[in-house]
Automatic annotation (TrEMBL):
<dbReference type="GO" id="GO:0008982">
    <property type="term" value="F:protein-N(PI)-phosphohistidine-sugar phosphotransferase activity"/>
</dbReference>
<keyword id="KW-0808">Transferase</keyword>
<keyword id="KW-0598">Phosphotransferase system</keyword>
<keyword id="KW-0418">Kinase</keyword>
<feature type="domain" description="PTS EIIB type-4">
    <location>
        <begin position="1"/>
        <end position="156"/>
    </location>
</feature>
<keyword id="KW-0813">Transport</keyword>
<dbReference type="InterPro" id="IPR036667">
    <property type="entry name" value="PTS_IIB_sorbose-sp_sf"/>
</dbReference>
<dbReference type="InterPro" id="IPR004720">
    <property type="entry name" value="PTS_IIB_sorbose-sp"/>
</dbReference>
<keyword id="KW-0762">Sugar transport</keyword>
<dbReference type="GO" id="GO:0005737">
    <property type="term" value="C:cytoplasm"/>
</dbReference>
<keyword id="KW-0963">Cytoplasm</keyword>
<dbReference type="GO" id="GO:0016301">
    <property type="term" value="F:kinase activity"/>
</dbReference>
<dbReference type="GO" id="GO:0009401">
    <property type="term" value="P:phosphoenolpyruvate-dependent sugar phosphotransferase system"/>
</dbReference>
<protein>
    <submittedName>
        <fullName>PTS transporter subunit IIB</fullName>
    </submittedName>
</protein>
<dbReference type="Pfam" id="PF03830">
    <property type="entry name" value="PTSIIB_sorb"/>
</dbReference>
């Protein structure tokens, strides 16, 4: 069961390990990222950041879709981590269980603007945000579980 789908370009780090995992009772982190899935060094570094007693699965986007739609995933309490709005949109279109996306951290890039202290988006991202919202996906910003939910659409 997917407890949270989170966009965070750092993927696994302290906020995830020390706040989200215990708050949601997570027993499995699924990193859905094509680049990381094919890079042994990145896999190793993310493995060092994961909390003890929490399983870490690093899969390509295609492998993640297959796994998340399988019966194997249903018994786990999953925190799904992606690094971009584009990847969140792809997964939400292919995994019916994803009905909400948490925006945790997206660093600025060329042509982007800050919509919160940790979220920078460009025009392509805004198009995807509107598409996700039109598809009925809840889009909220919170760095940690104790933060008040702010809805992304109100900030663009």
């Amino acid at each position: 069961m997917i407890k949270l789908t989170r966009i965070d370009d750092r993927l696994v780090h302290g906020q995830v390990a020390f706040t989200w995992v215990p708050s949601l009772g997570i027993d499995c982190l699924v990193v859905a990222n094509d680049k990381v899935a094919s890079d042994e060094f990145l896999k190793l570094t993310l493995g060092l950041a994961k909390p003890a007693r929490t399983q870490l699965m690093i899969k390509s986007l295609k492998e993640s879709i297959t796994f998340l739609n399988s019966e194997k995933s249903k018994a786990l309490k999953i925190l799904l981590l992606v690094s971009s709005i584009k990847d969140a949109a792809l997964l939400s279109a292919q995994v019916p269980e994803i009905r909400s996306v948490n925006f945790g951290g997206i660093r600025g890039k060329e042509g982007s603007k800050l919509i919160s202290k940790a979220i920078a988006v460009n025009d392509d991202d805004i198009t995807l945000i509107r598409q996700l919202a039109d598809d009925g996906i809840e889009l909220e910003i919170r760095q940690v579980p104790s933060d008040t939910k702010r809805f992304v659409q109100s900030l663009i």
